């Protein structure tokens, strides 16, 4: 499966199958949240949240790819990510793009 942020793949002819997406809502347990709060006072990277969001992007991407595969796609183009806070210490990550099949 090719995943690309571009709208075209050089040398490839394809038909558009439609939009695909994958999302996940993640949170950290209260202990990590308390440590992150302390880190907020002194500054610097909150590595537990960096890791959480990295894992969330990976899960969202895998779900997007699974949806594309179920449509018979060979690639997902114009891939984008979005995020939103659902509630305190909880984030939604969405991956979306256009599923295409090579002709």
What does this structure look like?
- The chain is α+β, with helices and mostly antiparallel strands.
- It has a single domain (2-102), classed as Translation Initiation Factor IF3, CATH 3.30.110.
- Helices cover 36% and strands 41% of the residues.
- It contains two helices and four strands; from the N terminus they run E-E-H-H-E-E.
- It has a four-stranded mixed beta sheet.
- The longest helix has 24 residues, at 47-70.
- The chain starts with a strand and ends with a strand.
- 17% of the residues are buried.
- The model has no long low-confidence stretch (mean pLDDT 86).
List the helices and strands and how they pair.
Elements: E1 2-3, E2 14-27, H1 30-42, H2 47-70, E3 75-87, E4 90-102
Parallel strand pairs: 1-3
Antiparallel strand pairs: 2-4, 3-4
Number of strands: 4
Structural class of the secondary structure composition? Answer: alpha+beta
Total number of domains: 1
Helix content bin = 25-40%
CATH superfamily label: Hypothetical protein apc22750. Chain B
Radius of gyration: 17 Å
- Residue stretches low in confidence (pLDDT < 50, at least 5 long) are none
Helix tally equals 2
- Morphology call: elongated
CATH fold label: Translation Initiation Factor IF3
The proportion of strand residues reads 35-45%
Q: What is the succession of H and E elements?
A: EEHHEE
CATH hierarchy: architecture = 2-Layer Sandwich
Most strands sheet:
4 strands, mixed
Distance between the ends: 15 Å
Mean pLDDT over all positions: 86
